[in-house]
Amino acid sequence: MRVSSLLSLLAIAVYGQASTDLEGTWTSKSNQVFTGSGFYDPVEELLIEPALPGISYSFTSDGYFEEALYQVSGNPQDPTCPVAVLIYQHGTYEVDDDGQLVLTPFAVDGRQLLSEPCVDKGVSTYSRYSQTEKFKSYLVQLDTYYGKQSLQLYKSDGSPAQPLFLAYKPPMMLPTITLNPTDQSDATATSNAKRDLISHVKRSLENRHKTNAVKKTPFNVEKYWWGSLALLGVGSIVFVMS
């Protein structure tokens, strides 16, 4: 049996039933919020604000999830002071026999950045965050309007959350280990794995705006013609003088 199959079986045995149809990175309609190192840098412990609000969830086929959330809400007391929050979580998930989806985060890794400009005087509050999430059910199907796979999550009361659309498969997410353990008992990675994490994040951040495309200079016929003519003239002069 392959190592990947053994890991999948172990994850299911420990964390409960996983789901292959959830596999991938899903994002909301703004298409600006994605999980991974573009949203949270665990090395520097920085939350990176996307261009627009939105939500993204990533799921692996062997029972791990990651969440990136950026929400802006109005302030009823002062419309000029909207409240913004960025939340990062990752951990394990399971699908119960009744179809309920339960996301259980690694408590030490969750982060929240809360901005209340009329209260915090421009200094946002950065803190740990851990919140188990339960969805009554979910539905994966093809959205014929957008031509993409969609994920509809239903909240614990049965009401639908905003729809998400498949952006990446396999998912784009940080390593499924405890990223910032508070003590040795929290650590789920060796020192070598931690170095691999730092390397992974740095490569991801460095390559965010890079492309593999190579610019090729078009062939300039006119330049080639004049160059040939000049060489012909020089050759004629040399021939006459000889």
UniProtKB/TrEMBL annotation:
An example Gene Ontology molecular-function term: unfolded protein binding
GO biological process, one term: 'de novo' protein folding
Record's signal peptide: 1-18
Matches recorded under InterPro entries: Rot1 (IPR019623)
Annotated localization: Endoplasmic reticulum membrane
Any Pfam family the entry gives: Rot1
Keywords, ordered alphabetically: Endoplasmic reticulum, Membrane, Signal, Transmembrane, Transmembrane helix
GO CC term, one of those recorded: endoplasmic reticulum membrane
Membrane in keyword set: yes
Bilayer topology: Single-pass type I membrane protein
Main location, first listed in the record: endoplasmic reticulum
Biological role stated in the UniProt entry: Required for normal levels of the cell wall 1,6-beta-glucan. Involved in a protein folding machinery chaperoning proteins acting in various physiological processes including cell wall synthesis and lysis of autophagic bodies.
Family stated for the protein in its record: Belongs to the ROT1 family.
Protein name (record): Protein ROT1
Organism in which the protein naturally occurs: Kluyveromyces dobzhanskii CBS 2104
